[in-house]
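Moderator note: this is an archived Q&A kept for reference. The question asked for a predicted structure of one protein chain; the sequence and the answer are reproduced below.
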Amino acid sequence: MTTTITLNADAINTLDLAPAQAVIEPWIKDGSVANHEQEIRFVIDFPQEPEDPRELSEIPEVRLWFVRLDANYPWLPFLLDWEAQELGRYTAMLVPHQFGSGGIEFNPEALEIFLMQKIFVLANWMQEQGISSRTKLTFMAQMLSYALDYGFFDLLNI
């Protein structure tokens, strides 16, 4: 099942998280948030001038909205539809990058810091939810072209 969160320019410009909260908060309240793994997709309707070549992840207002969202729900990558490339797009909203001939190129150090922070947050959150995390977190890292050794998880006691 897919759940779509639609963002418009007004929500983005006012840093209004209501579109995401309307979806996520009921799941939190009824205790079902962990049942919505890889379900969320974002539709972003942010007007650009025709001559503006920037991707949405290069627009400061859009990025700032996602920074605020991440501050409120740091475990959100668990809910993103990875197969629809939502994890990559979400990462692009939060990690410095550029576009090259091979596509998006993340700043390697920034990506490593982002990924390690997400691994720590998600490992704790998933443990609280009773979800086995090693394989899922390893796969998340692989989705971002990063390899984690299983021995790393021994350090985290998970």
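Archived answer notes: Helices lie at 9-13, 18-29, 60-72, 86-94, 108-129, 134-143, 150-156.
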